[in-house]
Amino acid sequence: MTKTRKLATLLATVSFGALVAGSASAESLQDVMKRRGLTDNDVMAAAKTYNPTGKLDEFMVFSSGGQSGQVIVYGVPSMRILKYIGVFTPEPWQGYGFDDESKAVLKQGSEVQGRTILWGDTHHPALSETNGESDGQWLFINDKNTPRIAVIDLRDFETKQIVQNPILQSEHGGAFVSPNTDYIVEPAQYAAPLGGEFAPLEQFNEKYRGAVTFWKFNREHGRIEPENSFSLELPPYSQDLADFGKGPSDGWAFVNSFCTERYVGGIERGRPPFEAGCSAKDSDFLHVINWKKAAELVKAGKAKKINGHNVLPMDVSVAEGILVLIPEPKSPHGADVTPDGKFITVSGKLDSHTTVYSHEKIQAAIAAKKFSGKDEYGIPIISLDDAAHKQAALGLGPLHTQYDSKPCVAYTSLYVDSMVAKWDYCEGKVLDKVSVHYNIGHLMAMEGDTSKPKGKYLIALNKLAIDRFAQVGPLHPQNHQLIDISGDKMQLLYDMPLPLGEPHYAVSIETGKLKTNVRYPFGTDSRTEKKSPFAVRPGQERIEKKPGKVEVFGTLIRSHITPEIVEANEGDEITFHLTNLERAQDETHGFAVSKHNVNLSVEPGKTASATIKANKAGVYPYYCTEFCSALHLEMEGYLLVQPANYKATGVKGKEGQVYGQKEYDARVKANTDTQAVINSVVGYITSVNFKDFPAVVAMVEDATEQLGYAEQNKKKSEEFAAKGDYNAAFLWAEQWFQYQVKAADIGLRAKTFLEQNGAKKVEAAK
Ligand code: CUK
Ligand code: CUA
């Protein structure tokens, strides 16, 4: 098929597509319900979750990716997965861990005591807040296994920073943010000597410690400042989940714990296992911490340094009155501050009770120094009676609590019952229950851990799926279930399989609050968020060679890589710096070199680099890995690695094909015809109110740019024709045509968009 005919076919396909979209199915809704065995309730649930094509979700969810070390992003109510964000684990589609810039970020977290850790056990994502409300700027997530916190910028959903915890060997209950995101909390989990030294288990009580780290976040720079961060030394209890106070409790943090028995197992030593000794007592301790005062004490020089990190010793915290303990029922889990900041709920996994602690009562007890005793480390204990507002029996295995937009309404997950309990935490009474499938861990209501929850939907993050999905072998996906909480009764709407690790927690935000970029400013290093020193403008591309080193400063644009030929010698180190020159939305180019561990994702405006060692002579094609345009497959080039002793033979091979005036004239005629087609599309677009559609305005800008390139190449071909070099003239005329195709592609997309979105005729200009 000739290329002009291809274009005509493209035009025809577009109008055919419109026809198909307009035709309706002959079956009635009742027919479909009958055929698929759907009840009225099912259809109602479907109607509540279905997003017709082009309709966007009201909320966006950021779920931990569990053992995948990533973050999973999906929409609510449709439950459509939108993105996986590479965090602690390389992710090739995004080039994460494959380009030099992101490798530097990954390395901040992966190089641990001479080992390279390429996975993470992500548990709790946290969205940044302003005055206790989600502001959509940053996302933080922790790794339980290798204590670390990552910072993700929500302008481009990329990981920007990873900080390793300098004193912990294990953690769990972070990340959670203070109401203005000046601190991020990261409590320890399994006690160990702080700083990573060895000590025998026999010295558990003396040498092993728990801790909680408060990472200082600099909002202006969007980065954690390790030097301004600090930790509190805590007893060797297993600190668990944390939350920051807000409103009246702002300045305080709450950390639940288990295994305050400080039992060390040792089945092989003839001792009962950890699980027996760690749940022997009837209660553990909620840690109540005045973190604002702790920050002041650190500033005043009261901390000691462990691995260069500020640690407030327990005796200082006790003497300064910034740390107290309160009993919490058997094997507790969760510590969730209510939206108004007045209460904290903690559940007992092995107790059917959820306890509502009153911040006011706690403060009164602290002020009156009304303590029931001290623990073995001298930390004062407030009795449960003096701190509890209410206790509610919600069901078996209560874990986590989230809040509704309605006052006093909370939702608590019941692991053993496989249910969600809706209850009134002011009165301590159950309002409703719904079964989930199965064994729910966390649950999450829309912005349900902020000071302004949005209600509407709740997600159950179930641990087991069992029979909910078609079987895919012994390892099942996770099951996130969407529940409608807008009415008095909860309604289960949707099951979503998540096949990427076991997410523990998720957070959500109104989609409208996110201010994401569709492109980077020209030449951006997305990981530092600054202009890359390696960015080049079109026409400035170059290859720099030094002994042992080849450095390529190139560009990417539909549909070619500049340069297309790179020569190197065996043993050279080669760095490609590539800038995507596109401004059009979604015009990402990839870059891969055959048989090398390189894949870049270069989004419009981005500059990314890849460094490889040419350790073996040979011919290595490189190419674009994103299907970016009709001639994507032609977006290619050659890396030629010459052997050390290579001598050019001087024999010049023949070029594949030589063109003359006849081919040139035919090409020019075809291009002129194509231009007529383009002009008719442009004529249509400008005859309607396209300026009222921002998406179309962007497309028109892009198409205009492509036509500009077409014009430049037309001139080049004419110059060669004038000199009688018809071979070169023909090839530049081909390139002129390529830009016409790109312009036509975008123009047709714009035309279809306008037709489908009710564009109206406007008065002819002038
Ligand atoms: S934990 Cu997994 S169910 Cu890591 Cu927040 Cu509670
Ligand atoms: Cu660029 Cu394919």
The hetero compounds bound to this protein are: [4Cu:2S] cluster, dinuclear copper ion
Beta strands, count: 46
What name does CATH use for the topology of the domain at 524-642? Immunoglobulin-like
> If strands are numbered along the chain, what order do they take across the biggest sheet?
10-11-12-13-18-17
State the separation between the terminal residues, measured CA to CA.
41 Å
Radius of gyration: 31 Å
Describe the structure.
- Among the domains are: 3-49, no CATH class; 524-642, Sandwich (Immunoglobulin-like), CATH 2.60.40.420; 661-756.
- Helix content is 22%, strand content 35%.
- The chain is built from 13 helices and 46 strands.
- Helix 1 (3-22) runs parallel beside helix 13, helix 11 (661-687) runs parallel beside helix 13 (726-756) and helix 12 (694-722) packs antiparallel against helix 13 (726-756).
- The structure holds [4Cu:2S] cluster and dinuclear copper ion.
- It holds the Pfam family Cupredoxin_1.
Compact overview of the structure:
This is Cytochrome C. The protein is of the alpha+beta class.
Note the topology.
Layout: H1 3-22, H2 29-36, H3 40-49, E1 59-64, E2 70-76, E3 81-86, H4 100-110, E4 111-112, E5 115-116, E6 122-130, E7 133-143, E8 148-153, E9 158-164, E10 176-177, E11 183-187, H5 204-207, E12 210-218, E13 223-234, E14 238-244, E15 252-258, H6 274-277, E16 283-290, H7 291-299, E17 304-306, E18 309-312, H8 314-319, E19 323-329, E20 332-337, E21 343-348, E22 353-358, H9 359-367, E23 373-374, E24 380-381, H10 384-387, E25 388-393, E26 398-403, E27 409-414, E28 419-424, E29 429-435, E30 440-446, E31 455-462, E32 478-484, E33 491-498, E34 506-510, E35 524-525, E36 530-531, E37 542-546, E38 549-557, E39 560-562, E40 565-569, E41 573-580, E42 589-593, E43 599-602, E44 607-613, E45 618-623, E46 636-642, H11 661-687, H12 694-722, H13 726-756
Parallel strand pairs: 13-18, 38-41, 40-46
Antiparallel strand pairs: 1-2, 1-34, 2-3, 4-5, 6-7, 7-8, 8-9, 10-11, 11-12, 12-13, 14-15, 15-16, 16-19, 17-18, 20-21, 21-22, 22-25, 23-24, 26-27, 27-28, 28-29, 30-31, 31-32, 32-33, 35-36, 37-38, 38-39, 41-44, 42-43, 42-45, 45-46
Helix pairs in contact: 1-13, 11-13, 12-13
Bound molecules: [4Cu:2S] cluster and dinuclear copper ion.
Dinuclear copper ion is lined by residues 559, 589, 624, 626-628, 632, 635.
Domain Cytochrome oxidase subunit II copper A binding: 545-653
InterPro entries: CcO_II-like_C, Cupredoxin, EfeO_Cupredoxin, N2O_reductase_N, N2OR_C, Nitrous_oxide_Rdtase_Sec-dep, Nos_propeller, NosZ/Cyto_c_oxidase_sub2
Keywords: Copper, Metal-binding, Periplasm, Signal
